[in-house]
Amino acid sequence: MAEDAPLHVSLVAVPGSLLLPIAGLYEVLTAFPVVAGFHEGVPSSPPFAVEIVGTAQTNVPAASGLPITIQRAVDRIDRTDIVIVPTMAVEESWEPGCHPELVAWMQRMHAQGAMLCSACTGLGLLAETGLLDGRQATTHWAFGPGFRDAFPDVELCLDEVLVTAGDREEFAMSGGAASWQDLVLYLIGRFVSPVAAQAVAKFELLERHAEGQAPYLPFLPQTQHGDGMVRGMQDWLETNFAVASPVTEMTSRSGLSPRAFERRFKCATGLSPIGYVHQVRIDEAKRRLEQTDLPIDQISWEVGYEDAAAFRRLFKRIARVTPGNYRRKFSTDRPT
Description:
The protein is α/β, with parallel strands linked by helices. Helix content is 42%, strand content 12%.
């Protein structure tokens, strides 16, 4: 970046935006003069010029009811370097068409070379531009199903907390509610320096979610697929996941050949039968790690794995952390 010209950052706000991500992004991106007094390698002159923008220069209510001051209307912004759409209040799915002026403005800014970013549910507004079609993206895991319905051409990667896309990596999207921290540290590392990003993280006590969203992600199986036989097997598995050979048992109950059952099950749920079993078992193991002090080897056996070492490997592959680290992170018995 040019040393004498700070990058212009536009934080998009609409009625129903969450105040905390907007305030957090604004304050961190403008904190360089303070941080520079404590850390070498941090520029004392601000590398970013940040504005809160919207359809009109006014106050709009945040989701909490607190006011957000929009400093400039987008129809008065002919150029910007980085656009960030932070978290917005969404019920179950994104409702397109609510902010056409912002969508058109973002399309123009991208055409002029601007980078477009989103945090959490802000992805919906970014996706309305059509610029993410055929590309990977991420958002809060809870809104994944509704987002897929609204934007089937965007490839969601809900395990990831930060996804970049585009030939110039001109799109950057972060996942859950606190993932604006990952986004802001990514932007500082990219446009200032990794040293500056580390210094800001230390000074502000910001946390990178290095494991992605996987440790936080519950198993949300597809059940509204219309296949009664497969749904019956899913219901059966909820209480029989620990049996010795659940796939063999389900295949026998279905009356189909193993190949036909696997094909039909995967078509309905998106997972192979054994992949589905692993997800159900690991989800149950998570609950027991959170709510009990049972030894990990015992939990492994209780959810259906006789080989505790294999269970640990599988748990880490799915949750991206070891069972022990998961318990330390999420146990309800942790001291407060």
